[in-house]
Amino acid sequence: MRKEVKIGLAGIGALLVLFFGINYLKGVNMLKPESYYYVEFTDINGLANSSPVFANGLKVGLVRDIQYNYQKPGHVVVGIDMDEKMRIPKGSYADLVTEMLGTVKINLVLDFNSTTYYAAGDTIQGRANPGIMGVAEKELLPKVEQMMPKLDSILSSLNQLLADPALKNTLHNAEQLTASLNATSKQLNTLMSKDVPALTGNITTITEDLKQISGNLKNIDYASTFIKVDSTLQNVRLLTDKLNRKDNSLGLLLNDSSLYNNLSATAGNAASLLEDLQAHPKRYVHFSLFGKKDK
């Protein structure tokens, strides 16, 4: 062989390997016989070539071609390659499902009650199944958009609150209050562990003393005591009556005014006598070195 022919054959082989390799990476088995069907959608929602086709959760085909149906405006025709052994009952339809990560796939919903089947090249009715992302886009996003102004207002208020010095002071006061409560708790613990048992012991002692006093009081003869007290009060009453009467010496002493007057006069005379004695002592005391009396 000539050198140029060898290079040409090597290039053709490389192209074939590249072609089969790319299709293999796409999941297309070129050596496996397949059936070709068409699915008609009004919105493919980002469906791309080589997207998988599932039936009952198993991959049974691939999207090979996507064309806009110019004869029916608003419709898109998707060509899918299916396993040759895969038979699609009439009445089945294809769901266009949007997954969580945004990828789109075709899911065949088969009608197992049908006894007739689509032939290769037939068109299958397609339906849009928004899935979780579609529901989120249609229902959640409008609500989120409505909530955004409120969230913005809440965040603004929160920023103002966090920037307010009063919050810092409040947290500082709360810290001080916590420290005070901790100290109070320790003091209360000390009180409960030391002082309260001692106080309880003192109360117990006082209770025992009161119990003993109560027992002693119980043994007292109250009737006899009250009789004696009554007798004493009667004697005091008799003594008071005698002191108020003038038929006895003590009564006369307390009630006779003449005795008081005599005593008062005697005291006055005694005072005058003492004054005179101090003024003229020679009248009452006579003293001489030679034994002679003065006249």
From TrEMBL:
Signal peptide per UniProt: none
Mce/MlaD domain sequence ranges: 35-101
Record field: transmembrane: 7-25
Any Pfam family the entry gives: MlaD
Keywords: Membrane, Transmembrane, Transmembrane helix
Annotated coiled-coil segments of the chain: none
Designated name of the protein: MlaD family protein
